Amino acid sequence: MEYDLIIRGGTVIDGSGSEPIKADIAVNAGRIARIGNLGDASASKTLDATGKMVTPGFVDLHTHLDAQIGWDPMMSSSSYHGVTTAMIGNCGVTFAPCSPKNRRYLAELMESVEDIAADAIMDGLPWDWTSYGEYLDSVQSLKPVLNVVGLAGHSAIRYEAMGDRSMDEGAQPDDKELEHISQMVKESMEEGAVGFSTSRFLLHTVPDGRCTPGTWADLRETKAIQEAIIAGGGQGALFQSANDMQTRYETELQMFRDATELGCQVLFSGGTGPQGDGGVTRWSKFFEEQNSGGKRLASICHTRPSGAFFGLAQLSPFTKKSSAWRDLMALPNIASRVDALKNPATRATLISEGIAAGDMNHLAHMLHPFGVEETPNLDFNRKASLQQLAAEAGKDPVEVYVDRLAESEGREFFNYWMFGGNLENQWKYMQLPHVVPMLGDAGAHVGFFTDTDSPTVLLSELTREQGVYSLPEAIHRITGKSAEIIGLKERGELREGWHADINIIDYENLRTCHPEYVNDFPHGGGRFIVRSQGYDATIVAGEVVVENCQHTGQRPGKVIREFVRG
Known about the structure:
By secondary structure, this protein is of the alpha/beta class.
Protein backbone atom coordinates (compact mmCIF):
# COMPACT_ATOMS: atom_id res chain seq x y z
CA MET A 1 0.00 0.00 0.00
CA GLU A 2 1.16 3.50 -0.82
CA TYR A 3 1.01 6.04 2.05
CA ASP A 4 1.37 9.81 2.09
CA LEU A 5 4.10 9.66 4.73
CA ILE A 6 6.09 7.02 6.59
CA ILE A 7 8.19 7.75 9.66
CA ARG A 8 10.67 4.87 9.92
CA GLY A 9 12.75 3.42 12.70
CA GLY A 10 11.83 5.75 15.56
CA THR A 11 11.30 5.10 19.25
CA VAL A 12 7.61 5.79 19.67
CA ILE A 13 6.41 7.40 22.92
CA ASP A 14 2.70 7.45 22.28
CA GLY A 15 1.53 10.05 24.85
CA SER A 16 -0.42 7.62 27.04
CA GLY A 17 2.37 7.23 29.59
CA SER A 18 3.25 3.77 28.24
CA GLU A 19 6.84 2.68 27.76
CA PRO A 20 8.50 3.41 24.42
CA ILE A 21 8.40 0.95 21.52
CA LYS A 22 10.32 0.71 18.26
CA ALA A 23 7.91 1.18 15.38
CA ASP A 24 7.22 2.81 12.04
CA ILE A 25 4.27 5.17 11.57
CA ALA A 26 2.32 5.56 8.33
CA VAL A 27 0.12 8.56 7.58
CA ASN A 28 -2.69 8.97 5.06
CA ALA A 29 -5.00 11.95 4.56
CA GLY A 30 -3.78 13.64 7.73
CA ARG A 31 -4.37 10.65 9.99
CA ILE A 32 -2.22 7.84 11.38
CA ALA A 33 -2.93 4.81 9.20
CA ARG A 34 -0.62 2.19 10.77
CA ILE A 35 1.84 1.82 13.64
CA GLY A 36 4.22 -1.14 13.55
CA ASN A 37 6.78 -2.77 11.27
CA LEU A 38 5.88 -1.47 7.84
CA GLY A 39 8.51 -3.52 6.03
CA ASP A 40 8.49 -2.75 2.33
CA ALA A 41 5.55 -0.32 2.43
CA SER A 42 6.15 2.81 0.37
CA ALA A 43 5.12 6.44 0.69
CA SER A 44 5.26 9.72 -1.17
CA LYS A 45 7.52 11.02 1.60
CA THR A 46 9.68 9.08 4.09
CA LEU A 47 11.32 10.45 7.22
CA ASP A 48 14.14 8.52 8.88
CA ALA A 49 13.67 8.60 12.66
CA THR A 50 16.41 6.09 13.49
CA GLY A 51 17.89 6.97 16.89
CA LYS A 52 15.16 9.59 17.43
CA MET A 53 11.99 9.59 19.48
CA VAL A 54 8.57 10.04 17.90
CA THR A 55 5.90 11.67 20.03
CA PRO A 56 2.50 13.28 19.66
CA GLY A 57 2.55 17.01 19.00
CA PHE A 58 2.41 19.06 22.18
CA VAL A 59 -0.80 20.71 23.36
CA ASP A 60 -0.17 24.16 24.85
CA LEU A 61 -2.97 25.05 27.24
CA HIS A 62 -1.93 28.65 27.87
CA THR A 63 -1.16 31.04 25.03
CA HIS A 64 -2.10 34.59 24.07
CA LEU A 65 -1.53 34.25 20.35
CA ASP A 66 -4.93 35.85 19.69
CA ALA A 67 -3.34 39.00 18.25
CA GLN A 68 -0.04 37.69 16.90
CA ILE A 69 -1.72 35.12 14.69
CA GLY A 70 -2.98 38.05 12.57
CA TRP A 71 0.49 38.90 11.28
CA ASP A 72 2.42 35.76 12.22
CA PRO A 73 0.39 32.71 11.17
CA MET A 74 3.55 30.65 11.74
CA MET A 75 2.86 31.22 15.46
CA SER A 76 6.48 31.52 16.52
CA SER A 77 8.00 30.74 18.95
CA SER A 78 5.43 28.00 19.82
CA SER A 79 5.98 26.25 16.49
CA TYR A 80 9.73 26.03 17.23
CA HIS A 81 9.08 23.89 20.31
CA GLY A 82 6.97 20.99 19.16
CA VAL A 83 3.55 22.54 19.77
CA THR A 84 0.86 21.40 17.33
CA THR A 85 -2.26 22.67 19.14
CA ALA A 86 -2.47 26.01 20.96
CA MET A 87 -5.28 27.26 23.17
CA ILE A 88 -5.83 31.01 22.84
CA GLY A 89 -7.98 33.40 24.85
CA ASN A 90 -6.61 32.70 28.34
CA CYS A 91 -6.94 35.02 31.35
CA GLY A 92 -10.18 36.58 30.12
CA VAL A 93 -8.34 38.53 27.40
CA THR A 94 -10.00 37.87 24.04
CA PHE A 95 -11.36 39.78 21.06
CA ALA A 96 -14.87 38.31 20.86
CA PRO A 97 -17.73 38.69 21.17
CA CYS A 98 -17.25 42.33 20.31
CA SER A 99 -19.35 45.18 18.93
CA PRO A 100 -17.46 47.39 16.45
CA LYS A 101 -17.48 50.27 18.94
CA ASN A 102 -15.54 48.17 21.47
CA ARG A 103 -12.71 47.01 19.21
CA ARG A 104 -10.23 49.67 20.27
CA TYR A 105 -10.96 49.02 23.93
CA LEU A 106 -10.14 45.31 23.58
CA ALA A 107 -6.94 46.11 21.68
CA GLU A 108 -5.83 48.52 24.40
CA LEU A 109 -6.73 45.99 27.07
CA MET A 110 -4.53 43.38 25.35
CA GLU A 111 -1.71 45.93 25.20
CA SER A 112 -2.04 46.76 28.88
CA VAL A 113 -2.26 43.16 30.09
CA GLU A 114 -0.17 41.23 27.58
CA ASP A 115 2.27 43.84 26.15
CA ILE A 116 1.21 43.88 22.49
CA ALA A 117 0.80 47.34 20.95
CA ALA A 118 -2.84 48.29 20.36
CA ASP A 119 -2.03 49.86 16.97
CA ALA A 120 -0.44 46.59 15.86
CA ILE A 121 -3.54 44.72 16.96
CA MET A 122 -5.91 47.10 15.20
CA ASP A 123 -3.94 46.98 11.96
CA GLY A 124 -2.88 43.33 12.15
CA LEU A 125 -6.29 41.71 12.60
CA PRO A 126 -9.19 41.82 10.11
CA TRP A 127 -11.82 42.66 12.77
CA ASP A 128 -14.52 41.12 10.59
CA TRP A 129 -16.56 39.60 13.42
CA THR A 130 -18.98 40.44 16.19
CA SER A 131 -19.90 36.98 17.54
CA TYR A 132 -17.48 34.40 18.86
CA GLY A 133 -18.27 31.98 16.06
CA GLU A 134 -17.46 34.64 13.48
CA TYR A 135 -14.20 35.28 15.30
CA LEU A 136 -13.23 31.61 14.98
CA ASP A 137 -14.12 31.77 11.28
CA SER A 138 -11.76 34.73 10.94
CA VAL A 139 -8.93 32.90 12.74
CA GLN A 140 -9.35 29.97 10.33
CA SER A 141 -9.16 32.36 7.38
CA LEU A 142 -5.69 33.40 8.57
CA LYS A 143 -4.49 29.83 7.81
CA PRO A 144 -2.57 29.16 11.02
CA VAL A 145 0.31 26.71 10.96
CA LEU A 146 -0.92 25.03 14.18
CA ASN A 147 -4.30 23.85 15.37
CA VAL A 148 -6.15 26.40 17.48
CA VAL A 149 -8.79 26.11 20.21
CA GLY A 150 -10.36 29.26 21.60
CA LEU A 151 -11.67 30.45 24.95
CA ALA A 152 -14.36 33.10 25.23
CA GLY A 153 -13.08 35.78 27.60
CA HIS A 154 -14.62 37.49 30.59
CA SER A 155 -13.15 40.88 29.72
CA ALA A 156 -14.84 41.07 26.31
CA ILE A 157 -18.15 39.68 27.52
CA ARG A 158 -18.45 41.71 30.72
CA TYR A 159 -17.46 44.93 28.96
CA GLU A 160 -20.00 44.23 26.22
CA ALA A 161 -22.73 43.84 28.87
CA MET A 162 -21.73 46.46 31.45
CA GLY A 163 -19.54 48.99 29.66
CA ASP A 164 -17.03 51.07 31.57
CA ARG A 165 -18.30 50.23 35.03
CA SER A 166 -17.34 46.57 34.41
CA MET A 167 -13.90 47.54 35.71
CA ASP A 168 -15.03 49.36 38.87
CA GLU A 169 -14.14 47.60 42.11
CA GLY A 170 -17.30 46.24 43.69
CA ALA A 171 -19.49 46.74 40.58
CA GLN A 172 -21.73 43.74 39.94
CA PRO A 173 -24.13 43.18 37.05
CA ASP A 174 -27.82 43.75 37.60
CA ASP A 175 -30.21 40.96 36.66
CA LYS A 176 -30.54 42.12 33.04
CA GLU A 177 -26.77 42.48 32.61
CA LEU A 178 -26.14 39.08 34.17
CA GLU A 179 -28.64 37.52 31.80
CA HIS A 180 -26.79 39.18 28.90
CA ILE A 181 -23.43 37.89 30.17
CA SER A 182 -24.79 34.36 30.55
CA GLN A 183 -26.36 34.41 27.09
CA MET A 184 -23.12 35.52 25.44
CA VAL A 185 -21.21 32.77 27.25
CA LYS A 186 -23.74 30.14 26.19
CA GLU A 187 -23.75 31.32 22.57
CA SER A 188 -19.95 31.39 22.44
CA MET A 189 -19.83 27.81 23.65
CA GLU A 190 -22.43 26.73 21.09
CA GLU A 191 -20.41 28.45 18.36
CA GLY A 192 -17.23 26.54 19.08
CA ALA A 193 -15.44 27.94 22.15
CA VAL A 194 -13.67 25.22 24.16
CA GLY A 195 -14.60 27.10 27.32
CA PHE A 196 -14.53 30.41 29.14
CA SER A 197 -11.62 32.29 30.71
CA THR A 198 -11.38 34.89 33.44
CA SER A 199 -8.69 36.81 35.28
CA ARG A 200 -8.87 37.82 38.90
CA PHE A 201 -5.14 38.56 39.07
CA LEU A 202 -4.73 42.06 40.49
CA LEU A 203 -1.68 42.86 38.30
CA HIS A 204 -3.81 42.50 35.17
CA THR A 205 -4.92 46.10 34.62
CA VAL A 206 -6.37 48.30 31.88
CA PRO A 207 -4.64 51.51 30.69
CA ASP A 208 -6.23 53.72 33.37
CA GLY A 209 -4.94 51.44 36.14
CA ARG A 210 -8.18 49.69 37.01
CA CYS A 211 -8.29 45.90 37.04
CA THR A 212 -9.62 44.06 34.01
CA PRO A 213 -13.35 43.31 33.73
CA GLY A 214 -14.16 40.21 35.71
CA THR A 215 -11.57 40.81 38.42
CA TRP A 216 -14.21 41.82 40.95
CA ALA A 217 -17.00 39.48 39.80
CA ASP A 218 -18.70 37.87 42.78
CA LEU A 219 -19.66 34.23 43.15
CA ARG A 220 -23.20 34.97 41.95
CA GLU A 221 -21.78 36.06 38.60
CA THR A 222 -19.15 33.36 38.24
CA LYS A 223 -21.66 30.63 39.08
CA ALA A 224 -24.11 31.96 36.48
CA ILE A 225 -21.26 31.90 33.95
CA GLN A 226 -20.35 28.33 34.91
CA GLU A 227 -23.97 27.28 34.41
CA ALA A 228 -23.91 28.91 30.97
CA ILE A 229 -20.68 27.09 30.10
CA ILE A 230 -22.36 23.76 30.78
CA ALA A 231 -25.60 24.79 29.04
CA GLY A 232 -23.73 25.72 25.86
CA GLY A 233 -20.78 23.34 25.91
CA GLY A 234 -21.87 20.29 27.89
CA GLN A 235 -20.40 18.49 30.86
CA GLY A 236 -16.63 18.87 31.00
CA ALA A 237 -16.48 22.19 29.17
CA LEU A 238 -13.63 24.38 30.38
CA PHE A 239 -13.53 27.12 33.01
CA GLN A 240 -10.06 28.72 32.95
CA SER A 241 -8.86 31.20 35.54
CA ALA A 242 -5.89 33.32 36.55
CA ASN A 243 -6.46 33.90 40.24
CA ASP A 244 -5.95 36.19 43.20
CA MET A 245 -4.62 33.74 45.77
CA GLN A 246 -3.11 36.46 47.95
CA THR A 247 -6.21 38.35 49.13
CA ARG A 248 -9.18 36.13 48.14
CA TYR A 249 -7.87 32.61 48.61
CA GLU A 250 -11.06 31.10 50.07
CA THR A 251 -13.26 32.87 47.52
CA GLU A 252 -11.17 31.51 44.68
CA LEU A 253 -11.36 27.98 46.02
CA GLN A 254 -15.13 28.29 46.37
CA MET A 255 -15.33 29.46 42.76
CA PHE A 256 -13.46 26.30 41.75
CA ARG A 257 -15.78 24.14 43.88
CA ASP A 258 -18.85 25.72 42.28
CA ALA A 259 -17.46 24.97 38.84
CA THR A 260 -16.52 21.34 39.46
CA GLU A 261 -19.85 20.63 41.18
CA LEU A 262 -21.69 21.93 38.11
CA GLY A 263 -19.58 19.75 35.81
CA CYS A 264 -16.95 22.16 34.46
CA GLN A 265 -13.38 21.15 33.85
CA VAL A 266 -11.44 23.77 35.85
CA LEU A 267 -7.98 24.84 34.72
CA PHE A 268 -5.93 27.43 36.61
CA SER A 269 -2.39 28.79 36.64
CA GLY A 270 -0.63 27.51 39.75
CA GLY A 271 2.71 27.31 41.46
CA THR A 272 4.41 27.35 44.83
CA GLY A 273 5.65 29.79 47.42
CA PRO A 274 9.08 29.98 49.05
CA GLN A 275 8.02 29.06 52.60
CA GLY A 276 7.81 25.47 53.84
CA ASP A 277 6.64 23.19 51.06
CA GLY A 278 5.18 26.16 49.19
CA GLY A 279 1.62 24.87 49.55
CA VAL A 280 2.26 21.54 47.84
CA THR A 281 0.58 19.49 50.59
CA ARG A 282 -2.42 21.81 50.68
CA TRP A 283 -2.81 21.73 46.90
CA SER A 284 -2.42 17.96 46.82
CA LYS A 285 -5.40 17.57 49.15
CA PHE A 286 -7.47 20.06 47.14
CA PHE A 287 -6.70 18.29 43.85
CA GLU A 288 -7.74 14.98 45.40
CA GLU A 289 -10.99 16.49 46.69
CA GLN A 290 -11.85 18.21 43.41
CA ASN A 291 -11.13 15.18 41.23
CA SER A 292 -13.41 12.78 43.09
CA GLY A 293 -16.85 11.64 42.06
CA GLY A 294 -16.40 12.72 38.46
CA LYS A 295 -15.26 16.26 39.29
CA ARG A 296 -12.37 17.75 37.30
CA LEU A 297 -9.74 20.30 38.25
CA ALA A 298 -6.23 20.75 36.85
CA SER A 299 -3.41 23.26 36.95
CA ILE A 300 -0.67 24.45 34.64
CA CYS A 301 2.68 25.76 35.88
CA HIS A 302 6.01 27.18 34.76
CA THR A 303 8.84 24.82 33.88
CA ARG A 304 11.53 27.30 34.90
CA PRO A 305 11.71 30.31 37.22
CA SER A 306 10.15 33.22 35.40
CA GLY A 307 9.27 36.86 35.73
CA ALA A 308 11.17 39.22 33.42
CA PHE A 309 14.34 39.60 31.37
CA PHE A 310 16.44 42.56 32.50
CA GLY A 311 19.01 43.85 30.05
CA LEU A 312 19.22 46.25 27.14
CA ALA A 313 16.01 45.24 25.32
CA GLN A 314 13.20 46.94 27.22
CA LEU A 315 13.53 46.41 30.95
CA SER A 316 16.04 47.86 33.39
CA PRO A 317 15.81 47.76 37.19
CA PHE A 318 17.00 51.38 37.52
CA THR A 319 14.93 53.58 35.22
CA LYS A 320 12.45 54.75 37.86
CA LYS A 321 15.19 56.28 40.03
CA SER A 322 18.03 57.10 37.66
CA SER A 323 18.01 59.72 34.91
CA ALA A 324 21.17 58.23 33.38
CA TRP A 325 19.49 54.85 33.02
CA ARG A 326 16.35 56.45 31.60
CA ASP A 327 18.49 58.23 29.02
CA LEU A 328 20.28 54.98 28.17
CA MET A 329 17.08 52.97 27.68
CA ALA A 330 15.58 55.81 25.60
CA LEU A 331 18.23 55.26 22.92
CA PRO A 332 16.68 53.74 19.78
CA ASN A 333 18.09 50.20 19.88
CA ILE A 334 20.32 47.72 21.69
CA ALA A 335 23.38 48.57 19.58
CA SER A 336 23.25 52.26 20.49
CA ARG A 337 22.85 51.37 24.17
CA VAL A 338 25.91 49.12 24.01
CA ASP A 339 27.92 51.97 22.46
CA ALA A 340 26.87 54.25 25.30
CA LEU A 341 27.83 51.66 27.92
CA LYS A 342 31.35 51.50 26.49
CA ASN A 343 31.94 55.19 27.17
CA PRO A 344 33.92 55.25 30.47
CA ALA A 345 32.18 58.36 31.81
CA THR A 346 28.72 57.01 30.97
CA ARG A 347 29.61 53.64 32.49
CA ALA A 348 30.76 55.30 35.73
CA THR A 349 27.57 57.37 35.97
CA LEU A 350 25.33 54.36 35.31
CA ILE A 351 27.11 52.35 38.00
CA SER A 352 27.00 55.13 40.60
CA GLU A 353 23.32 55.94 39.96
CA GLY A 354 22.46 52.24 39.86
CA ILE A 355 24.08 51.70 43.26
CA ALA A 356 22.38 54.80 44.66
CA ALA A 357 18.98 53.51 43.48
CA GLY A 358 19.39 50.66 45.93
CA ASP A 359 17.24 48.20 43.96
CA MET A 360 19.99 45.64 43.58
CA ASN A 361 20.01 45.13 47.34
CA HIS A 362 16.91 42.98 47.02
CA LEU A 363 17.14 41.97 43.36
CA ALA A 364 20.64 40.58 42.87
CA HIS A 365 19.92 37.17 44.40
CA MET A 366 16.90 36.78 42.09
CA LEU A 367 18.68 37.74 38.83
CA HIS A 368 20.31 34.87 36.95
CA PRO A 369 22.18 35.77 33.75
CA PHE A 370 21.65 33.52 30.74
CA GLY A 371 25.21 33.98 29.55
CA VAL A 372 26.12 34.38 25.90
CA GLU A 373 26.31 30.79 24.65
CA GLU A 374 23.80 29.39 22.18
CA THR A 375 22.16 27.45 25.03
CA PRO A 376 21.25 29.72 27.94
CA ASN A 377 22.45 28.97 31.46
CA LEU A 378 19.19 28.31 33.33
CA ASP A 379 21.16 27.93 36.60
CA PHE A 380 19.14 25.07 38.04
CA ASN A 381 22.19 24.37 40.25
CA ARG A 382 21.79 27.89 41.71
CA LYS A 383 25.45 28.82 41.45
CA ALA A 384 25.29 31.82 39.12
CA SER A 385 22.97 34.49 40.49
CA LEU A 386 24.13 38.06 40.04
CA GLN A 387 24.71 38.25 43.78
CA GLN A 388 26.95 35.15 43.69
CA LEU A 389 28.87 36.36 40.64
CA ALA A 390 29.46 39.76 42.24
CA ALA A 391 30.69 38.20 45.48
CA GLU A 392 33.13 35.99 43.58
CA ALA A 393 34.46 39.01 41.67
CA GLY A 394 34.61 41.25 44.75
CA LYS A 395 32.47 43.87 43.00
CA ASP A 396 29.11 45.54 43.50
CA PRO A 397 26.33 43.70 41.65
CA VAL A 398 25.54 46.84 39.63
CA GLU A 399 29.10 46.93 38.29
CA VAL A 400 28.91 43.27 37.27
CA TYR A 401 25.51 43.90 35.68
CA VAL A 402 26.84 46.79 33.56
CA ASP A 403 30.02 45.01 32.55
CA ARG A 404 28.23 41.85 31.43
CA LEU A 405 25.84 43.89 29.30
CA ALA A 406 28.71 45.73 27.63
CA GLU A 407 31.00 42.72 27.16
CA SER A 408 28.19 40.64 25.65
CA GLU A 409 27.29 43.40 23.15
CA GLY A 410 23.83 43.46 24.75
CA ARG A 411 23.24 39.73 24.24
CA GLU A 412 23.15 39.06 28.00
CA PHE A 413 19.76 38.92 29.72
CA PHE A 414 19.17 38.52 33.43
CA ASN A 415 16.26 36.20 34.21
CA TYR A 416 14.27 37.49 37.19
CA TRP A 417 13.19 34.51 39.32
CA MET A 418 9.85 35.95 40.42
CA PHE A 419 7.76 32.78 39.95
CA GLY A 420 8.93 29.25 40.68
CA GLY A 421 12.25 30.23 42.25
CA ASN A 422 12.07 27.57 44.99
CA LEU A 423 12.93 24.70 42.68
CA GLU A 424 12.30 21.87 45.14
CA ASN A 425 8.78 23.12 45.87
CA GLN A 426 8.04 23.81 42.22
CA TRP A 427 9.19 20.36 41.11
CA LYS A 428 7.12 18.67 43.82
CA TYR A 429 4.09 20.69 42.67
CA MET A 430 4.49 19.75 39.02
CA GLN A 431 4.70 16.06 40.01
CA LEU A 432 1.16 16.18 41.42
CA PRO A 433 -1.08 14.06 39.18
CA HIS A 434 -3.31 16.90 37.98
CA VAL A 435 -0.61 19.41 37.05
CA VAL A 436 0.49 20.09 33.46
CA PRO A 437 4.02 21.54 33.34
CA MET A 438 3.56 24.00 30.52
CA LEU A 439 2.91 27.72 30.90
CA GLY A 440 4.54 29.23 27.87
CA ASP A 441 2.34 32.34 27.63
CA ALA A 442 3.12 32.55 23.91
CA GLY A 443 2.11 35.89 22.46
CA ALA A 444 2.11 37.63 25.85
CA HIS A 445 4.62 39.91 27.58
CA VAL A 446 6.57 39.74 24.35
CA GLY A 447 8.90 42.63 25.14
CA PHE A 448 9.61 41.61 28.72
CA PHE A 449 10.31 37.88 28.64
CA THR A 450 9.38 34.63 26.91
CA ASP A 451 8.63 31.19 28.26
CA THR A 452 7.48 29.75 24.94
CA ASP A 453 10.28 27.19 25.14
CA SER A 454 8.46 25.62 28.10
CA PRO A 455 8.10 22.10 26.56
CA THR A 456 11.73 22.08 25.48
CA VAL A 457 12.92 23.08 28.95
CA LEU A 458 10.65 20.40 30.42
CA LEU A 459 12.17 17.65 28.29
CA SER A 460 15.80 18.72 28.02
CA GLU A 461 16.38 20.13 31.50
CA LEU A 462 13.77 18.85 33.95
CA THR A 463 13.44 15.36 32.49
CA ARG A 464 16.79 14.53 30.87
CA GLU A 465 19.08 16.42 33.26
CA GLN A 466 17.18 16.73 36.55
CA GLY A 467 15.01 13.61 36.50
CA VAL A 468 11.84 15.39 37.65
CA TYR A 469 9.83 13.08 35.35
CA SER A 470 10.39 9.89 33.45
CA LEU A 471 10.36 10.57 29.72
CA PRO A 472 7.02 8.78 29.05
CA GLU A 473 5.39 10.72 31.91
CA ALA A 474 6.75 14.06 30.72
CA ILE A 475 5.43 13.44 27.21
CA HIS A 476 2.08 12.27 28.58
CA ARG A 477 1.59 15.46 30.59
CA ILE A 478 1.92 17.77 27.58
CA THR A 479 0.14 15.53 25.05
CA GLY A 480 -2.41 12.97 26.18
CA LYS A 481 -3.22 14.60 29.50
CA SER A 482 -3.45 18.11 28.04
CA ALA A 483 -5.69 16.86 25.24
CA GLU A 484 -7.93 15.09 27.75
CA ILE A 485 -8.32 18.22 29.88
CA ILE A 486 -9.80 20.24 27.03
CA GLY A 487 -11.57 17.31 25.37
CA LEU A 488 -9.66 17.09 22.11
CA LYS A 489 -11.04 14.37 19.87
CA GLU A 490 -8.53 11.83 18.56
CA ARG A 491 -5.53 14.00 19.42
CA GLY A 492 -2.83 13.86 22.08
CA GLU A 493 -1.73 10.26 21.50
CA LEU A 494 -0.26 8.29 18.63
CA ARG A 495 -3.03 5.85 17.71
CA GLU A 496 -4.17 4.38 14.43
CA GLY A 497 -7.01 6.46 13.02
CA TRP A 498 -6.11 9.56 15.07
CA HIS A 499 -4.91 12.89 13.69
CA ALA A 500 -1.29 12.88 12.59
CA ASP A 501 0.10 15.64 14.84
CA ILE A 502 3.60 14.34 15.48
CA ASN A 503 7.12 15.32 16.57
CA ILE A 504 10.40 13.66 15.61
CA ILE A 505 12.94 14.60 18.29
CA ASP A 506 16.68 14.13 18.67
CA TYR A 507 16.29 13.82 22.43
CA GLU A 508 19.94 13.70 23.43
CA ASN A 509 20.62 16.93 21.53
CA LEU A 510 17.36 18.68 22.39
CA ARG A 511 17.86 22.14 23.85
CA THR A 512 16.42 25.61 23.99
CA CYS A 513 18.36 28.47 22.47
CA HIS A 514 19.35 31.87 23.77
CA PRO A 515 16.47 34.40 23.59
CA GLU A 516 16.66 36.92 20.76
CA TYR A 517 15.09 40.37 20.63
CA VAL A 518 13.67 41.15 17.19
CA ASN A 519 11.57 43.94 15.70
CA ASP A 520 9.11 42.08 13.50
CA PHE A 521 5.70 43.24 14.74
CA PRO A 522 3.54 45.77 12.86
CA HIS A 523 4.87 49.33 13.21
CA GLY A 524 8.31 47.92 14.05
CA GLY A 525 7.36 46.64 17.48
CA GLY A 526 9.85 44.43 19.27
CA ARG A 527 9.58 41.08 20.99
CA PHE A 528 11.58 38.14 22.26
CA ILE A 529 11.70 34.92 20.30
CA VAL A 530 13.45 31.72 21.30
CA ARG A 531 14.45 28.94 18.92
CA SER A 532 15.38 25.33 19.59
CA GLN A 533 17.62 22.51 18.50
CA GLY A 534 16.63 18.88 18.37
CA TYR A 535 13.19 18.95 16.75
CA ASP A 536 13.96 17.22 13.48
CA ALA A 537 10.36 17.65 12.33
CA THR A 538 7.01 18.86 13.62
CA ILE A 539 4.01 17.52 11.73
CA VAL A 540 0.46 18.90 11.75
CA ALA A 541 -2.32 16.94 10.02
CA GLY A 542 0.29 14.85 8.25
CA GLU A 543 2.17 17.87 6.86
CA VAL A 544 5.70 18.75 7.95
CA VAL A 545 5.43 22.36 9.15
CA VAL A 546 8.83 22.80 10.84
CA GLU A 547 12.15 21.08 10.06
CA ASN A 548 15.18 21.81 12.20
CA CYS A 549 13.66 25.06 13.44
CA GLN A 550 12.80 26.25 9.95
CA HIS A 551 9.23 26.70 8.76
CA THR A 552 8.44 24.77 5.61
CA GLY A 553 5.67 27.14 4.53
CA GLN A 554 2.92 24.58 5.07
CA ARG A 555 -0.02 25.89 7.13
CA PRO A 556 -2.51 23.05 7.68
CA GLY A 557 -3.70 24.10 11.15
CA LYS A 558 -7.41 23.94 11.94
CA VAL A 559 -9.61 25.83 14.36
CA ILE A 560 -11.07 23.02 16.45
CA ARG A 561 -14.68 23.51 17.54
CA GLU A 562 -15.87 20.04 18.56
CA PHE A 563 -14.79 18.38 21.78
CA VAL A 564 -15.32 15.21 23.79
CA ARG A 565 -17.89 15.99 26.46
CA GLY A 566 -19.79 14.10 29.12
